[in-house]
Amino acid sequence: MNGFEFTFADPDDEKSIKRLLSASGLPHEDMAQHLRHFILAKSDHDLIGVVGLEVLGELGLLRSLAVAPPHRNKGIGTILYGRILAYAHLQGIKELYLLTTTAEGFFSKLGFCKVDRNNVPPPIQATKEFQTFCPSTAVCMVKGRDEEPQYYPKEILRLQPDVPGAAMWAIALKKAMLTYFEVEPNSRFEMHRHESEQITMVLEGELFFEIAERMICVKQGEVIAIPSNVPHAVFTQKKSAKAVDAWSPPMEKYKK
């Protein structure tokens, strides 16, 4: 969407988020402790939309979806929802709950179903939104992690540290996984093996693989395929590297 950018919130955004939520009639008293799970829409660096998530293991509470009045009816709320849904998937959330007093129709179109408040799991019932901030008349809704295709925008795919000198992100389905790695020069993944079959393509630089007393240099645009349970080590030398890996079945250590 031209003229808009979507980013994760940082502490400098807290005051403007609270103003928008307050103007929209939404609670914000406990927002700061969940700020790292908030996604913002901005135009010329001004906050125009927000959505948040409380992560409770495999459960999540969708909250604080608001768009500034001059920017409503432009699809921004739907885009923010799509991004927080992708983020929830990356957090391993299997059921997403929410409370609403005014937007039951909007969320119904997104696949949420009304649920009796008494049947909500205890971790959701224990949230401040459920216990204190939202009125007892608020409608409670739930959506399971379904099997529809999921789009992951660039800003959702944040790099996380792995071994020293390497950072990565991972996307998983039930039977397959894709990972992306950025590896600094002179970094190393020590000798290891795994049940998952692995196919690695180097996008930039070069990766070196130690396999059965062989050393294989995989350069930009080249691919190596490693069968299940084959011992191997991976390292860089003078050049950094960027690479993607396909895994089947998914690697458990990278699922979250």
Outline of this structure?
The protein has 256 residues and is α+β, with helices and mostly antiparallel strands. It has helices at residues 14-23, 76-90, 104-109, 122-125, 128-133; strands at 5-8, 39-43, 46-56, 59-67, 95-100, 113-114, 139-144, 160-161, 166-172, 177-183, 188-192, 197-211, 214-219, 223-226, 232-235, 241-248. Strands 8, 9, 10, 11, 12, 13, 14, 15 and 16 form a nine-stranded antiparallel beta sheet that branches. Strands 1-2-3-4-5-7-6 form a seven-stranded mixed beta sheet, sandwiched between helices.
Q: What's the count of strands?
A: 16
- Overall shape: it is elongated
CATH architecture of the largest domain: 3-Layer(aba) Sandwich
Poorly predicted parts:
none
Count the domains.
Answer: 2
Number of helices: 5
The portion of residues forming beta strands comes to 35-45%
The CATH topology of the largest domain is Aminopeptidase
Mean pLDDT rating: 93
CATH top level of the largest domain is Alpha Beta
Cα-to-Cα separation, first versus last residue: 29 Å
Q: What radius of gyration results from the CA coordinates?
A: 22 Å
- The secondary structure category is alpha+beta
Task: State the fourth-level CATH superfamily of the largest domain.
Answer: Gcn5-related N-acetyltransferase (GNAT)
Biggest sheet layout: 9 strands, antiparallel
Order of helices and strands: EHEEEHEHEHHEEEEEEEEEE
Helix content: 10-25%
